[in-house]
Structures are given as structure tokens and as C-alpha cells.
Design a protein that fits this description.
Glutaredoxin, 8 strands, six-stranded mixed sheet, alpha/beta, two-stranded parallel ribbon, 257 residues, 10 helices
Amino acid sequence: MITRRQLAMGTLGALALGALGALGAFDGLTSHGGRAQAQTFSVLELEAKGPLDDIVMGSPTAPVTIIEYASMTCPHCAHFATETFPKLKEKYIDTGKVKYIMREYPLDRLAAAAFMLARCAGPDKYYPMIETLFAEQRKWAVKEPLQVLLTIARQAGFTEESFQACLRDKDLLDKIQQVRDRGQQKFKVEATPTFYINGERFSGALTMEELDKAITPLLPKAGAGSEDAPKADAPAATDAPKEAPKEAPKTDGAGKP
């Protein structure tokens, strides 16, 4: 027997994921962990305002900017998010050396729905929602995902009503599609994940060693301008006791000793 709740969730699934059909074709969009030939783009162009405001993690003045195009249903993206990203965050983002930006590049309607929920959660909960969705990807990237997604969304403060309203937000869906199309057409994103590190493109789930290799040359050298400068000679140190000042000879008032 189908309960009223199951019927409601089934109807929601039909409405929400059916509406996502407007996302367009996904032919040629793939996820992979391989490597593509490096290519460099203008950092100013990459950071220019797009259809959705970027949500920045880290110091806005960090010397290195990493932009990741990812899909929420991409297993390589989930692997990077759970295995490598925490190390990247601890070593470079939390220390002010890197600022990080996630950009939406959904490979399918379900990935678009997950990104919509992260956006609807608000800027402060966007990355925690992304983290949870990647960690739980195997549970909700299934044939009937809505109940699991609702459970995850509730942890971020959603009600069933706000959950449904988010997934029916056509304007938000259109903007996510525009972010994806801009990445594909302007910045040559061909698969997920794709990273731009100060403009240089790297395709595939980078390891921490590969990130170190790409980031380190872009960081200011420690002590530049101070440690390499010649130091003034310090007074010679000595253990010899200082000689006390000699007392002036006494006179009789006429200047004679």
C-alpha cells in the first residue's frame, strides 16, 4: 500500500526532476580522473562575475586562486572532496595561501538538483552542504534519490516545503546551467573535476602531491626582501670586563694636584 507521504514524495520527484529536464543535453560531458594538456586562461576573466555569485572559501587576498568545476554525481569529484580537499584546506586555504571557489558543472539532472539545494542553503551553508553531499553521494545518487536528499537537506535547516520550493526554482536552475555552459564554452571545461590554479587548467582529480607542485611556485618566497638582505655587522662580543672610568685627579682649587 502506498502511503500519502510516499505518494507526495513520488509526485515531488516527478515535478522536481521533471522540471530539471530543461537543463539541456549532457552529451560529451563526462567525469574522469585522467589528465589533459595544460592550458592557461586569464585570471581576471576566470574571476569575472558570472550568472551566479562565486562563494569564496579562504582569504580574498590569498596569492593563489583555485577554481574547481565539479559535478555532484561525479565519483572522481567525490573522491577529491573526501580524500584530498581536507588536506588542501588545512595546508593552504586555512593558512591564507589559497582561496578556493567551487563552480557548478552538473553532468545530469540529479547533480543539478543537488547543486540547487546547496545554493538554496545560503552562502554560509553552501560548502558544508557540498561536503555532506559528496560524502553521502552513494546514498543519494540512486534511482530514487528524493527521500535521501530531503533527509540531508533537513540537516541544513530545510523543511519539506522549502525543499520542494528550491527544486522547483526555474530561475536558479537556469543560472546553474549558464555557469556550466560558460565553463564549457569559455574556459574549455570538458570533464569533471577541472581545476584552474591561477589560471592554469588541470583536468582530473589532482592528488595532494600534484597540488603541492602546482601551488608552491606561486607562493611568495619566505623572507623575500629581508632574510636575503645583507645584515649590518654587530659589535664584537667579548667576555672581558669593561674598564671602569678613571677618577679625575683632585686639585687644591688652584688647579694644582
